[in-house]
Amino acid sequence: PVPTPPSTVDGFVKQFLENLNLERGVTLSTASPNDRYIALATTVRDFLVARWLEDIRRQKDAQAKGVCYLSAEYLLGRQLDNNLLATRLTDIATEALASCGIDIDDMRALEVEPGLGNGGLGRLAACFIDSLATMSVPSIGYGIRYEYGIFRQTFVGGQQVEQPDAWLTLGSPWEFAHPESAQTISFGGHTETYDDGGVTRSRWVPGWNVQAVPYNYMVPGYHNGRVNTLRLWRAVATDAFDLRIFNSGDYEEAVRAQTYAENISKVLYPEDSTPQGKELRLQQQYFFVAASIRDFLDHMLTPGFDLSKLPDRVIFQLNDTHPVIAVPEFMRVLVDEEHMEWDAAWEITQQCFAYTCHTLLPEALEVWSVELLGRLLPRHLEIIYRINDAFLEEVRERFGDDEMRIRNMSIIAEFPERSVRMAYLATVAGAKVNGVAELHSQLLREKVLPDFDEFYPGKFTNVTNGVTPRRFLRLANPGLAGLITDALGAGWTVDLERLRGLESFAEDPEFRARFAEVKAANKRVLSDVLRARDGFEVSDGHMLDVMVKRLHEYKRQMLKVLHIVTSYERIVSGRVKAEDVQGRAFIFGAKAAPGYAMAKRIIHLINAVGEVVNNDPRVEGRLQVLFPPNYNVTLAERVIPAADLSEQISLAGKEASGTGNMKFALNGALTIGTDDGANVEIRELVGDDNFFLFGMTEPEVEELWTRGYKPAEFYQQDEDLRRAIDLIASGAFSNGDRTVFEPIVSNLLYDDRFMVLADYASYIRAQDRVDAAYADQDAWTKAAILNIARCGFFSSDRSIRDYIDRIWHTPPML
Ligand code: 26Q
Question: Superkingdom of this entry's organism (predicted)?
Fold first, then answer.
């Protein structure tokens, strides 16, 4: 048994000092800040180890059904504070460090967050493993330990410049590497058939290998003593002998081959839509799922386990299509390695996988060219073909020889090149397919995969996303958390529906005053952070109007820009008096995929508009534009609690869910939003009076498209819009240079795929309503409190409960 470290201040100090000596080789007086941080993190980590080892054993012994969450991304955010909170060590550690003359806040600030994800999907995975641990669900998260996470964003002349995110360079105290448990993962080569005692079998003769080394992270449940595992894989070259199979044998070539192999886990792809079909990306996907499946089979099952019983023991949840190559890999293991009959193996596979879709954009649906797949994973391609043949045979039986339908449903697309449709493969293989918000799931069934919905009644379901209240309320907003606990007791952190109890407090003037004070304090904290981080001076007393999310045309940051330019132009043209305008600070946070030219131009424009607006005395004290670079989880935890207004303004039918929208509402920001994604559910819950709705509905969008959308007509007919666009086109934000933002202007006027101009008028009217509402501070506060009270539904604990009830059927361990 591993001793549980002492949970007293003295014990903590002793352990901390010992870690300084033994882990860092320094004394307290010679320790660098990083030494102190590492020693502190190690102290907290060691405290978790005993429980962790116990939980690993318990999960194995119980032989209960568990979840393997397969995700190419985990956007974890900083670990220290979360782990202190989960283990109730915050006060002890604070005091212990103080007694050593160290301010624990300085330690918190030193941690580099592991940014192993792009945005919503990766952060969702992180919230889910937090909830799984907190709810004692037998589970493990599998992913990739990227050496470089999402790039660090800087601005040079207002334009995005990407820097590598070398998050590991100062040490990584939260992980345990297990090189001795490495597995060999193969690629390339060819397939062959052979005679196995009268049975003809297929097998894969791979061309080259890499080692997959597991790195384990502890995922503590909140105050429940549970610790789950997140296992991330790192690619390491195999020894020289194996490498020689792959290369000609000379030294330089061998080193090159090593680099090639280790590239697999080198860097996170910073695209979060329009996948490029890059070979390395497919290598990453296969690398991590092959290692994860092998890991599960080797370590979670007892020797001699009857594989036909696998559906009673495991469900592999596919986080989007990124891990879908797991399906043919699982079949390959069962059929080629375990010598199971194809039909029996397929039966099992169809019960062991479930697929979550996170998009509606057709260009975001992953496809792999048959050429590439066949070259990298020849046996898997054969298996996919066989799955498809059997599937299409079933389709023919049901619908007859409807060739159009067959072509539409085929896992193999023929145009523009022969390729594998990963979403179709996932749908055919999965026991369930879910969307991530009610509207999204409905559109998924009706628009994206209607033939499949008809073919597989009951397969499609919804699980609305959620966020962890531990990180995004308790930790990020301690002031509000304290207020809630004073009002309702502490149970809300694991039972977020209890926030309903705040409804009556919305009527209590004293509670409202305290809430307003918390919001003001959070704004001061944010101001301090932005001053220290970026040298910004946030104006006092302004409404904080926030849009933070990846930069995408469908999310419509441009609509926000047009609103800002309109607000500015109305004042400088003298049409509106500055005094009559509500003071606002517009805050943006957004990274653009490095290859996404239009997104980068929009970032440039936001910075350019900010430069002009922030330096024009005519709007001073009224309008301010702040765009801190490198928006990440750490900054989110400061921005969201300070926000008054949450911008969720995607074109209806494009945003699968959104999860930022939930975080804002739970922190008492009001939403201005379209009828899209989870906004729909937020508005239903908080009520129309506490939500600023605008824009076309999804059917209206559809209708305008079919009628023929001409954005220039909206430009012609709306004076405010014309003035705003003309101002941008005139070079007012580019030192008179009309060429810089010309592509944005002509895109809006002549293309505008996401109907920014069509929703402009409605958006501006809604913003005018926001201004009027904000003028009555007390009424605004009441609405903010009601948002909090009514959004308990958006806890990721509830999402996990829905996954358990509708998909996984994995009861919590008691
Ligand atoms: C795929 C192939 C190649 C390279 C990159 C990718 C890739 C990577 C990340 C494709 C998509 C993503 C991420 C998508 C994402 O974050 N989607 C968001 O998921 C959230 C959680 O469900 C939703 O709330 C958002 O609406 C959705 O946009």
Answer: Bacteria
In this structure, which topology does domain 63-78+113-462 adopt according to CATH?
Rossmann fold (3.40.50)
Q: Which residues contact 795 (CB under 8 A, 6 or more apart)?
A: 131, 466, 467, 468, 469, 496, 497
Ligand 1 atom 10, closest CA: 272
For residues 231-251, give the mean pLDDT.
Answer: 74
Task: Supply the Cα-derived Rg of the chain in whole angstroms.
Answer: 27
Cα of 320 vs centre of ligand 1, distance in Å, is 8
* Ligand 1 geometric centre to CA of 118 (Å): 7
What pLDDT, on the 0 to 100 scale, is given for residue 194? Answer: 98
Cα–Cα distance for residue pair 625/610, rounded to 1 Å = 5
Tokens 């009830």 -> residue: 805
Q: Is the pLDDT of residue 768 over 70?
A: yes
Interacting residues of 279 by C-beta distance below 8 A, sequence separation 6+? 372, 376
pLDDT given for residue 331 in this prediction? 98
Terminal C-alpha separation, the chain:
21
User: How much is the ipTM here?
Assistant: 0.97
For the chain, give the mean pLDDT.
96
Q: Which of 128, 272, 433 to mutate to test the pocket of ligand 1 (most atoms within 8 A of CB)?
A: 272
pLDDT at 2: 53
Domains of the chain by residue range: 63-78+113-462, 538-789
Percent of the chain with pLDDT over 90: 93
Residue 148 DSSP code: B
Q: How far is the CA of 682 from the centre of ligand 1 (A)?
A: 21
CB atoms within 10 A of CB 737: 10
- Residue scoring higher pLDDT (50 or 381): 381
pLDDT in tens, 716-758: 999 999 999 999 999 999 999 999 999 999 999 999 999 999 9
Sign of CA dihedral 442, 444, 448, 452: negative
Which CATH code for domain 538-789? 3.40.50.2000
Element (H, E) at 62: helix 33-62
Q: How far is the CA of 364 from the centre of ligand 1 (A)?
A: 8
| Ligand 1 atom, smallest distance to 117 CA | 9
List all residues 6 or more positions away from 495 whose beta carbon is below 8 Å from its beta carbon: 797
* pLDDT surpasses 80 at 10: yes
Residue 241 pLDDT > 60: no
SS3 108: helix
User: What residue type is 304 in one-letter code?
Assistant: G
Interval between CA 73 and ligand 1 midpoint (Å) = 9
Query: What is the identity of the amino acid at 712?
Result: A
Greatest CA separation found in the chain?
90
pLDDT exceeds cutoff 60 at 245:
no
pLDDT band at 92; cut points 50, 70, 90? very high
Side chain identity at 801, as an amino acid letter? R
Q: Whose CA is nearest to atom 12 of ligand 1?
A: 272
pLDDT of 802 > 50? The answer is yes
Distance from C-alpha of 229 to C-alpha of 215, rounded to nearest angstrom: 10
Taking CA atoms only, the protein residue closest to ligand 1 atom 1 is 275
Nearest CA to ligand 1 atom 24: 658
Does the beta carbon of 796 lie inside 6 Å of ligand 1?
no
Peptide bond into 416 cis (omega under 30): yes
Nearest-angstrom CA–CA distance, 627 and 639: 12
pLDDT tens digits, residue range 499-529? 999 999 999 999 999 999 999 999 999 999 9
Which protein residue has the closest C-alpha to ligand 1 atom 15? 121
Per-residue pLDDT for 630 more than 60? yes
In 3-state terms, the chain is what percent helix, strand and coil (to 5)? 55, 15, 30
DSSP letter at 735 equals: T
With a cut of 50, say whether residue 1 has pLDDT above it: no
Q: Is the CB of 647 under 6 A from ligand 1?
A: no
Contact 673, 661 (CB under 8 A): yes
Contact 658 CB / ligand 1 (< 6 Å): yes
Residue numbers annotated as active site? 358, 549-550, 555, 659, 663
